Amino acid sequence: MDITQQSTMPGDIWNPDWNDPFVPTVEPNDAFAELVSAVHEVQEAFTRARPTPTDCAALATELRAVAAKLKMFEVGEDDQLAGHRWDLAGRGQVMAPPLRIEEVTATTAKGRVTVGRFHSGRYAMNGGVTPLIFDEIMARLANSAGRPWARTASLDVDFRAPAPLDVELRVQAQFLRQDGRKRYMRGTMHHGDVLVAEADGLWVELKPEQTRNISERDTP
Ligand SMILES: CCCCCCCCCCCCCC(=O)SCCNC(=O)CCNC(=O)[C@H](O)C(C)(C)COP(=O)(O)OP(=O)(O)OC[C@H]1O[C@@H](n2cnc3c(N)ncnc32)[C@H](O)[C@@H]1OP(=O)(O)O
Q1: Which of 3, 36, 45, 113 is the right S-S partner for 99, CB 3.0 to 4.6 Å?
Q2: Per-residue pLDDT tens digits for 85-115
Q3: Residue 213 Cβ < 6 Å to ligand 1
Q4: Is 178 exposed, middle or buried (0-12, 13-18, 19+ CB in 10 A)?
Q5: Percent helix, strand and coil across the chain, each rounded to 5?
Q6: Cβ neighbours, 10 Å, residue 172
Q7: Residue 36, H or E segment
Q8: Sign of CA dihedral 25, 191, 116, 156
Q9: What is the model's pTM?
Q10: What's the distance, Cα to Cα, between the start and end of the chain in Å?
């Protein structure tokens, strides 16, 4: 897949007229992207709601019925769709903030993300979500350009300003240098001109015996 084409792939299109900006519109024939979008809608609606105890009980029953249906389609981790849809924001991994990585070169990566209340701490992005976003884009860069697999060894995040909800944030990553198996990376997150967070990270190239559980599907 040509990674530079990602922003125009099915499921990666945001409808500016939609009431809830966290529900991406999807191509009509992309059924899995539709399912991801529906789960996101449930997450955001759940976070925003204050249902009565009676409604909580009824909703829990309905959601358990959905979970039971999905369990009928359970497969091994290598075969699941979630996390392997490289064309979708967040790779179809519904825990992940919907980061759209738009450009990856050998030394830089750029993306955009908008989070809602589901990923909120208190009127700002939760402090655990920011590293998730950095890990995603910096790992993608660390493993780009045909480099052998590397995993995150350390990720040091500085929170410079509250990251606002409901607005687009720009995320960038830079490949600083390689020292043997160690790859040093740097990341920044901006809202407009405001630096909201920055990160330094180390990715360590895996030895052959450490790549046993990694498959071709882990490659964009
Ligand atoms: C996996 C690939 C998927 C990618 C898909 C693309 C994007 C996907 C997007 C999804 C994103 C998901 C991505 C994820 O979420 S990856 C998941 C999160 N990360 C992990 O689970 C990694 C767990 N840790 C390990 O497996 C091992 O510790 C590794 C493999 C990292 C190193 O253990 P190993 O036994 O092999 O190496 P070593 O100990 O001899 O160390 C080697 C060198 O490194 C230096 N060092 C080590 N650790 C640290 C440290 N903390 N600070 C500073 N330095 C450190 C060390 O001093 C030494 O330096 P030197 O003495 O040589 O100078």
Answers
A1: 113
A2: 988 989 999 999 999 999 999 999 999 999 9
A3: no
A4: middle
A5: 30, 25, 40
A6: 18
A7: helix 31-48
A8: positive
A9: 0.86
A10: 7
SS3 call for 51:
coil
Q: Which H helix or E strand runs over 134?
A: helix 129-142
Neighbours of 90 (CB within 10 A): 25
**ipTM score:** 0.91
Residues 6+ apart with CB under 8 A from 142: 150, 175, 183, 185, 201, 203
CATH number 3.10.129.10 given to 1-220: yes
Question: Which atom of ligand 1 is closest in space to residue 179's alpha carbon?
Answer: 63
Give the number of other Cβ atoms within 10 Å of residue 41's Cβ.
14
Bridge partners (DSSP) listed for residue 217: none
What six digits make up the tokens of 88?
């979708």
Domain range list for the chain: 1-220
- Does any ligand 1 atom lie closer than 6 A to the CB of residue 95? no
Residue 202, ligand 1, Cβ within 6 A:
yes
